Structure formats: C-alpha cells, structure tokens
Amino acid sequence: MTGVDVLLLALGAVAVGSAVLVVSTRHLVRAGLYLVVCLGAVAGMYLVLAAELVAWVQVLIYVGAVVVLLLFAVMLTRAPIGASDDLDRPGWPAALIGGGVGLGLAALLVDAYRWTTVSLPEAGNAERIGEQVFSSWVLPFEVLSVLLLSALVGAVVLSRPDIGATADRGRSR
Amino acid sequence: MRPVIPYVTAALLFGLGTYGVLRRRNAVLVLMAVELMLNAVNLILITADATVRAVLPHSGQVFALFVIVLAAAEIGVGLAIVLQLYRMRASVAVDTIPLGDRNAEAVPATTSAAAQAAGSEPEGRR
After folding, report:
1. How far apart are CA B14 and CA B33, in angstroms?
2. 10 Å Cβ neighbour count for A57?
3. Cβ-contact B11, A98 below 8 angstroms
4. Scanning every residue of chain B, which has its alpha carbon at the shortest distance from the alpha carbon of A86?
5. What ipTM was reported for this prediction?
6. Is B42 within 8 Å of B64 (Cβ atoms)?
7. Beta-strand (E) ranges in chain A?
8. Residue A142 and residue A10: Cα distance in Å, rounded?
9. CB–CB contact A2 B1 (8 Å)
10. Residue B126 within any structural domain of the chain
C-alpha cells in the first residue's frame, strides 16, 4: 500500500459514502449538497490518477454548473424545505437490481485486476489533452458542438409554452 | 497504484446510481442518480487510461471530457422537461405520470377535437 493507494481508498470511501446519502436522504436540498461532496471526491480521484485537466473540468462543470442547475430545479419545483416522506417508492426491487449491478460489476473487476500494481502514466495536463483533442479527436469534438447546439435549441423549445402550443394546434388541424 | 481500488469504487457508484434511479419518486432526485452513474463511467474511463497502454495516448481522458459535455447537455434538456412537467401537473413524482396520455388524447380527437383543444389550452398557458 503506497501513499497513492491510501489516497484513492480514502477518496473512494468519501465518494461512495456520500453517494449512499444522495440516494437515501429525505431532504431534497441535502441530496444536492451530498452530490457536491461525491463529485468533489471523484475529482480528487482524477487528480490522483494523473488526469489534471479532467479533474478541473469536473469541478467547473459538474460542481459548478450541474449541481447549481439541479438546486435551481429543486427550488423551481417548490420542494419542501424540511424532510419529506414521499420521496421513495418501495425499495426491494431497486435494492435487488442496484445491489446486483454494483456488486456484480465489482466482482468482475476484482477478478480481472486482482491486486496488481500499475505505474501511473505522465499527467494529462491541458497541453497534452489539447494536442490529442485537436489532432486525433477533431471530428467527435465538432459533432459534440452540434449536439450542444441542438440540446440548447431543444431546451429553449421545451421551456417556452407558446412554441409548443402553436405546434400542437398545427398538428390537430 | 492498484487499479482495483478506483475500479471497485466506480462499480459501487454505478450500482448506487441504479438503485437511486429505481427507488426515487422525485424527478430531480432521479436526475441526481443519473449523474452518479455518469460519474462512475467517467471514473472507469480515467482509470482505464492510467491502466491500459493504448496506441493513442490519453484517449480515455479525452473520452471522459466528451462524456462530461454529454452530461451537461443531458442535464439541460432533462431539467427543461422536469420544469415543463411541473408546470403541467404541479408535481414531479415520476410514478404518477399516466403513460397512456397520448393515446387517450388521440382517440377523442376525431370526435371533439375543437372542444378538447379549447378546454386544455388555458391549462397549458398557465
């Protein structure tokens, strides 16, 4: 067990523990805040695994943007502030399938890697990742920009009731 | 570095995300569980990038960046759908949505389409 392993174990324990709280807490807002802890711990694991740029992008986009959007959605749907009892469905099938998926995948990966050691590669900083993105992965990069544009247009169309109403009227005639 | 530690962490995160998607009733909490699953996939990609020596260097990290962009697009459209659902039904519980609503509207549309449209329009505008 080297220092890297201890760091990975500690960050992994924090990530899994806060993920358990995300899927089991009775407070909507606290679920969002536990999600911040979980995503931050995963970003720390990226840093340990020599993925600098991905770690900072994770902090910027996930912790910065996605969680803020989720908290906005919690507020806009007028969620109760305190604990609410009607957040969950009966849990047996969910526990069965979720536990089966998680433990099955874990058993598969443990069987594949046992307790082997790997030396860490050179860190993926912005220069190296940028070289790769703009030499080998240019086409997916451009396709992703089109996807982002279509998602933007889709979100605007979905959230404007006047556009949807005119489309419905045109279809019914 | 022992790659089994982040791999097992990612597998457990994915299982917890699956559990959350199936267990939660609130649509916003379902989206949070989906985020957990996407993070587990990203962790697998980053660990595979550190573990497996590929022809192209750092391709796992580039894939993780692409998945992060996909997650951002997904959460934008998903929250637009959730907010529209709340505007229509004043509730975001996913197990109270009638899945056969489209068919139920399509059948009387032939008989009294004008009355249906006039009746449902102010509700949609609200």
Report:
1. 9
2. 21
3. no
4. B25
5. 0.88
6. yes
7. none
8. 38
9. yes
10. no
Q: Which of B15, B11, B23, B19 is nearest to B93 (CA)?
A: B23
Q: Which residues pair with B26 in a beta bridge?
A: B93
Specify if B110 maps to a domain: yes
Stretch 49-108 of chain B: residues touching chain A, C-beta under 8 Å: 49-51, 56-59, 61-62, 64-66, 68-77, 79-84, 86-87, 92-93, 95
- B31 vs A: CB within 8 A: yes
Model confidence pLDDT, tens digit, residues A112-134? 988 888 888 888 889 999 999 99
Closest CA to B92 of A25, A81, A139, A73: A73
Is the CB of residue A29 less than 8 Å away from at least one CB of chain B?
no
B119 touches chain A (CB under 8 A): no
A162 class by beta-carbon count within 10 Å (0-12 exposed, 13-18 middle, 19+ buried): exposed
Coil/strand/helix, residue A88: strand
Here the tokens at position A155 are: 């979100």
Q: Which residues of B fall within a CB distance of 8 Å from A4? A: 1
Q: Where are the domains of chain A?
A: 3-81+91-122, 137-173
Choose which CATH entry (2.60.40.10, 3.30.360.10, 1.20.120.1200, 3.10.180.10) describes domain A3-81+91-122: 1.20.120.1200
Mean pLDDT by 10 residues, chain A (173 residues): 91 96 91 94 94 93 91 84 78 91 94 87 88 92 95 89 60 47
Check CB contact of B20 with chain A, cutoff 8 Å.
yes
The two structure tokens encoding residue A120: 């860490």
Of the candidates A54, A151, A169, the beta carbon closest to that of B73 is on A151
Q: To probe the interface with B, which of A1, A27, A61, A109 has the most B CB atoms within 10 Å? A: A109
